[in-house]
Amino acid sequence: MQHYIDLAESDESDTLNKWIVKEYAYTNSIKKVIEKASSEGFTVNGEPLSREYAVSVINGKPNDELHKILRSGYRLKIRPNTRNY
Fold first, then answer.
1. What is the DSSP letter of 45?
2. Which of 33, 69, 83, 85 sits at 20 to 30 Å (Cα–Cα) from 43?
3. Cα–Cα distance between 29 and 31 in angstroms, integer?
């Protein structure tokens, strides 16, 4: 857990994609990432940040260890429950 916190705190958010990954690491909520992006005025090609764009960044090819951890957690979170009762 401490390793995850260290990764999130040391991650440089010099691009929008890295900022999305870092904010998702803190909140674990795409909705909160989008809300914060709109309050801070971030845009993608002049358009407000969309849910689809944020999901594509998180679900995209990981660029660093933090992104790799978040991507695997996100995929587990959205995976349908396949257990039979």
1. T
2. 69
3. 5
Measured in degrees and rounded to the nearest 5, phi and psi for residue 47 equal -105, 150
Q: Is 56 helix (H, G, I), strand (E, B) or coil?
A: helix
Residue of 36, 45, 29 whose CA lies nearest to 13: 36
- Coil, strand or helix: which one is 43? strand
At residue 49, φ and ψ (nearest 5 deg) are: -60, 125
Residue ranges of E strands in 1-85: 43-44, 47-48
CA torsion sign for 43, 76, 7, 60 is negative
Token pair recorded at residue 84:
């039979």
C-alpha 83/C-alpha 33 separation (Å) is: 31
For residue range 35-66, what is the model confidence (pLDDT) as tens digits?
999 999 999 988 999 999 999 999 999 989 99
